[in-house]
Amino acid sequence: MFPTPQSIWTDVTQIRAQAPLIHNITNFVVMNNTANALLAVGASPAMVHAPEETADFVAISSALVVNIGTLDENFVAGMKQAMRRAKDLGKPIVFDPVGVGATPYRNRVSAELLTLSAPEIIRGNASEIMALAGLDAQTKGVDSLFGSDAAVDAAHQLSRSLGCVVVVSGATDYIIRGEQTAAIANGHPLMTRVTGMGCTATALTGAFAAVNADYFQAAAHAMAVMGVAGEMAVEKQTAPGSLQVNFLDALYQLTASDIADRLKINE
Length: 267
Ligand SMILES: Nc1ncnc2c1ncn2[C@@H]1O[C@H](COP(=O)(O)OP(=O)(O)OP(=O)(O)O)[C@@H](O)[C@H]1O
Ligand SMILES: Cc1ncsc1CCO
Ligand SMILES: [Mg+2]
Hints:
nucleotide-binding; magnesium; UDP-N-acetylmuramoyl-L-alanine:D-glutamate ligase; binds adenosine-5'-triphosphate
């Protein structure tokens, strides 16, 4: 079913009621922001990356979020253990290919992880999705050099080849499964002035995937909530420091009518 304000709100209510445990293997930059965003939306985050325990931890979690932002061999070992176990147990995996395309190491690790256990959902910016799809895309470290429109074809291609949902974030967020597309035009450019808002979108996607096994819907619901909360935060104060705090408050205080009044979604 195509996402609607009602289907978004059903999932928000489910997250608040169930407080699903979300296992995050993520980067040092955003561990705090993303844990706080998950708490604010109603989920229960844990940031756990030691290879000695990630397989056990994913077994008690409702979804796994893997983010390659500050990679090293120890992180990669933890990711592999967790992703293998998540596949065995049928837990949804959400993957954020931060900075893929920037270095051969990131490209190699991403390819290895995707081959090992295909995720249910991948969320990246345009440069990252184009690089993952095998295009020789330019990236400026962890920031995109392209608008999200430029990566739509690559996202369809990647979705078909891995059989997963692919999200390209940007001024318009595209949620893509095979030939199916949802385009969400919420959010604000100031969101790019706070580090890890994309990583936050990915972490929230983990919470929605934990309560909704239609992963196309789950991904779209997460991006809609992200964009709506971002807009509400910017309306309170137009500067990055406040945005970071006001965004958490907006997530926590979000109502069904905030979504119904603001959602800008198209097929
Ligand atoms: N120009 C824009 N207008 C409106 N919203 C935007 C714009 N750019 C980004 N956003 C919103 O900001 C959020 C983060 O997306 P972005 O594409 O900046 O992620 P990212 O580049 O992966 O970020 P990071 O790597 O810092 O986590 C998304 O929810 C997106 O909708
Ligand atoms: C800034 C930064 N560097 C590595 S990961 C990260 C968080 C945003 O992607
Ligand atoms: Mg990113």
